[in-house]
Amino acid sequence: MKKLAVLALAATMSVSAFAVKIGVVNTQEVFAKYSGTKKVQQELVKEKEKLENDIRSKEVELQKLGIELQGKGAKVTEAEKTSYNKQAQALDQFVKGAQKQLSQKEYQSFESIRTTIDASVQSIAKKNKYDYVLEAGAVKFGGTDITQDVIKMMESTKKIDL
């Protein structure tokens, strides 16, 4: 009987010796609550509004030219038509370029935030000796939620480039 009790105790001890420490983090919450995200979003909105204003002013100029050409009717020269078409193409290229530029800036800014999230998660995991840190949505039960710790660390470091 003593051998059985000793074996049970040894088995229990060996299982607890190999216990895994798991942390969970809700990266979407971190991303949404991080002040750097809000700052990036505000900057992107400002830049988008500026580009939209530039596009509108160029469209108005092109519309004025189109109305002017329509007023001439049959007296419009080929050079004027060609000039109008070139300006329309230039506006189209400007719009596409502006959209691409804004999209790239958005990607780079948000990628910088994701990198900061990853670095903060790794730092907290090492500091608190977590064996694994998983996305909160992937864990049904258990683990220690480190989401707020990640947000606090990110707010204290403020390493975001716009």
From TrEMBL:
Gene Ontology MF term list: unfolded protein binding
Coiled-coil ranges from the UniProt annotation: 41-68
Pfam families: OmpH (PF03938)
InterPro entries xref list: Chaperone_Skp, Skp_dom_sf
GO biological process, one term: protein stabilization
Signal peptide residue numbers: 1-19
Lineage top rank: taxon: Bacteria
Cross-referenced Gene3D superfamilies: Skp domain (3.30.910.20)
Keywords: Coiled coil, Signal
Gene Ontology cellular component annotations, sorted alphabetically: cytosol
Keyword match Signal: yes
Family under the similarity heading: Belongs to the Skp family.
Name of the protein this chain belongs to: Periplasmic chaperone for outer membrane proteins Skp
The species this protein was found in: Propionigenium maris DSM 9537
